[in-house]
Amino acid sequence: MGKTSTLVVLLALTAATSMPLVGQAQSKNASLNGSIHSEKGESVASATVVAIHMPTGIRRTSVAGPDGSFTMPDVLSGGPFTLQVLQPGFRPQVVTNVFFASDKPTVLDFTLVPEVVAVGTRRTDRTLLESAVAVDVIDMRELTPTAPQTDLTQVLHYVVPSFNSTRQTSADGADHIDPISLRGLAPDQTLVLVNGKRYHTTGLINLLGSRGLGSVNYDLNAFASNALDRVEILRDGAAAQYGSDAIAGVINLNLKSDNKGGNVLLNTGITSRGDGFTSLLSVNKGLKLGQKGFLNLTAEADHRGATTRGSAQRDITSWPVFSYDAQEEAELLAASGKTYDDFRQKNGDANVRNFRGLYNLSVPVGAKSNFYSFGSYNSRRGQAVAPWVLPAAQEVDIVDGIFPDGYQPHINTRVHDATGTAGFAFGLGQWTLDLSHVLGVNQMRYDISHTLNSSLGAASPTNFDAGGFRFSQNVSNATLSRLFPKALAGTNVAFGGEFRADRYEIIAGEEASYKDYGQGKPDASPGAQGFIGFDPNSAVAGNRRNVSAFADVEADVTKKWTVGTAVRFENYSDFGSAFIYKVSSRLQLAKPVAVRAAYNTGFRAPALQQELYRQLTLLPTSNGNVYSGIFNNQSDVARAAGIGQLQPERSRNLSAGLVLTPAPALSFSVDAYQIAIDDRIILSGIFGFDPSGTRAALNNALTRANADNAQFFTNAVNTRTRGLDLVATYRPTVGHGTLNLGLAANFNKTIIRSLQVPAAFQNLQTDNLPGNDYVDQRQLSLIETGNPNEKIVLNTGYEIGKFSVLVRNQSFGQVKTYDFNFDPLDEGSVYMVFRPKVSTDLILNFRPNKAFMLTGGVNNMFNVYPDNIHTAAYRNGRPPVGFKTFDEFNAYFQAKYGRPSNLPYDFDILPYQSQQMSFNGRFFYLKAAYQFGL
Fold this sequence. Notes:
Elements: H1 3-16, E1 30-38, E2 48-53, E3 59-63, E4 69-75, E5 78-86, E6 93-100, E7 106-112, E8 135-139, H2 140-143, H3 152-157, E9 163-164, E10 181-182, E11 190-194, E12 197-198, E13 228-234, H4 239-242, E14 249-255, E15 262-271, E16 278-289, E17 293-304, H5 326-336, E18 351-364, E19 369-385, H6 391-394, E20 410-428, E21 431-449, E22 463-484, E23 491-507, E24 540-558, E25 561-572, E26 576-590, E27 593-604, H7 608-612, E28 615-621, E29 624-630, H8 636-641, E30 649-663, E31 666-683, H9 696-704, E32 709-711, E33 713-730, E34 733-734, E35 737-755, H10 762-765, H11 777-785, E36 790-800, E37 803-812, E38 815-818, E39 831-834, E40 837-846, E41 852-859, H12 869-876, H13 886-897, E42 923-932
Subcellular location: Cell outer membrane
Domain TonB-dependent receptor-like beta-barrel: 466-860
Membrane topology: Multi-pass membrane protein
């Protein structure tokens, strides 16, 4: 709303104080007229203006003419009224508590803000509905104060169907950094930007069979949601525009740029089980720098409590405390004076504490130049746990006098994530030159507590510095762009270059966290139990550089037909070059109907973390701990195995869509896509000693490395993903208020087209022993069916006066995965089917005045849980390959191994896996937000 309209409303409010009763209609009606323009002063034709008389619900509607003017000649005098201004391609505008006088017409002028998108285009005036590719725009100003979730990954998980992020459990570092997925692909196949600039990944690689196994992640939770204006999710390949990683799409975080006002946000919540208590305090403030500059600051602190689900009761075939014999187990428990409650496994969300700070500033420098800078810092302290170390399976690692009955190691982390950007935008005649530099650093250190190094015996400490890793990235970028308004119907040209330098290092832990001292019981396991520290042989440091050049042209051939093309060349210091391109087009068939399509090639460079990572990982099995080494491709073990150097993943994306806007309050889009990826980088299966002697060189290398088995990163899989995105919104006025309806859905399916297996391992992939494969069953199933095959979000909301209510339903589709195979069994593991689930949120909002808002509600109102792996997912699935029934397999297992089957793994202590949704159940929350400077 412009200055004129603000003054008129204030005058009308003043005049209203002389009225006999607020809301009482006078004998003579009033009139309203005015105009609607964009921020550039252009007339906005066909915009709809709705005036709702709140006491009676009587409404009047007017449509703006070609010059943007509108008139409403017959409205009730008095008030209060709520005014709505709606136009596709612009943000809706709502003005409340308006009064009209009967003795003179009221004139209101509105200025609408375009729903401009910054991803998928380098034009600065491209609106959401004009985009040639699918883009989701999530209004964080509206969502942050009301959503049940506080972490950014979880906020997006419950509102964006194509985006998935489930918190992991018992997955080491992944318990503290939520993996993300766009369109069912890996975390590192999506590019994250902040204000359009590349954001760095973490130093963490997802391991232990967690979501995104073998991939590198982005830590979106390093950002305070309250610092964001909106989040744009480009659902299309864009590597030709932005470089490596943008295979599935791009997530762009837009920071607030207000130069005045701000808010204070308080949040608290707890599960219906009484755990998982959360609290948050966030403050945002906008400051004016000079006449046209701004500085926007956000400071935030939050805490999330740990959760545990399932019974404390242990199953004798899975995780007994003292003995696999039921009678002996009962006797020893009684003798110890303990029950199973004393050995309950923590198995839900990790305990996490965050401190975040963000800034965003811009200052004019001269008449046509501008300096900008933004950045963030996040300090996180996390505490997760490993499975209990117990006498039944790990007697050699029990030390009398320290933890005589067993212990549950705590895996604690300290995460520091920082990024800073500085740049200049210069006006060079009709051209704009953008020069920027971005520095990003992510560090995670592990300190392990409530554990011991059993090879030290009674001399062992119970706390260890286990080391960690650090990743840093420097990006320098230069982009020159210009809009030629008279070339065709408008043509934007951009070109430029980029230089990027990455560095990754693994930091060794203290000696006691990894060393075998040989002073404990015979065969006692060396290193900190639960998480063995990084030893000096694992410590590594490496650098990589790449340079790139790109050109991007987007032309409006006519006012109804847009064509775009982009080309990019990149050269990396470690693997060579890549050349990729993209073409896109959008055609407005009629005013309410448009079609769009795009084709692009893309690539993802192997992450420096994947090239260099190495560690001995402690894997708990039913026969005790085994040490599995993850060896990088430069190691002696990899060379002995015949594993080659990593090469980039390469992709081909095809998409086509339809956009319908039959009315200002109604919009609909549907987009189909296909993404083919060659040479996908995955973590191989687990290989132990080869008794046949075929891989004698590998056997010798494992012995030298003190490892029981090995894994490698490898370009082993070619996949194809097909899917469909649907988005529909409808905001009609109903009764005295406004009905808000939104339906969004994603349907996708990934298949593995072929595998690429080194010659030395060909027999493993074809020997009909699925638990002995070069690429194991679980890894393949996580790629194909490890993400929900569909996800549907239905929002039904109603706003009336100071109140609003929203019911949000999220339908999570089926997930199917093979279980872990830690032992590893040649027969492979069981296949589990997690049935579709629906979670329902209820959100109630009360705004007593313009500045204050109170929101309360419940997430997962009906307390829906994902399938329990033993009572549901396991029984919905099937036994290992080659067995018709579970009874047949269990009899075979008993005969071969001399004990009952313990599959699925850890079914009593870890009853749920992180699949479609959280397994915390019902969650109650309360939020309060106060806006100042209005």
